[in-house]
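[job 4471] stage=fold_predict status=RUNNING
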Amino acid sequence: MAGRCCRFAVNLSGASLGDENTLDFICNQLEKNAIPQGMVSFEVTETAAIANLAAADYFIRTLKQSGCDFALDDFGSGLSSFAYLKNLPVDYLKIDGAFVKGIEHDAIDRTMVEAINRVGHAMGIQTIAEFVESPGILETLRMLGVDYAQGYAIGKPKPLVDDRDRLLL
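[job 4471] inference complete, writing structure tokens
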């Protein structure tokens, strides 16, 4: 396993964004365990972030200073997505699967994904498409220039460790 780099994405609840104890705990764990920069990416839903924009901004900026990345999850599900995007220092946009799953046959879904991708790229933010369930969806996303894909067409979820607690990466 030496020399192999792993990246872990951790979903955060909306409540954790406004909780100083959670932020202190994460910062302490990163320092205590000497977690390398770029190894941990946190995901917060767009809805949770905009519910308390100031707290989300502080939380994200603090952890980015510790070398963590942030993804804005389910992007596009809120009505004012692009307006809020300008105020959050995220590294990735996770395009809501509701748009992605119909991208092959629905011109509106395709246009929505294309718009989110273009705006993200214009802001220097990489994009991740959720709910990529078929090779056709994956190919359409490639043609649109989406950076990453997540879903069964890429791989099914699997455990990190086996029954003897050995890391399977």
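[job 4471] summary: The radius of gyration is 17 Å.
[job 4471] exit 0
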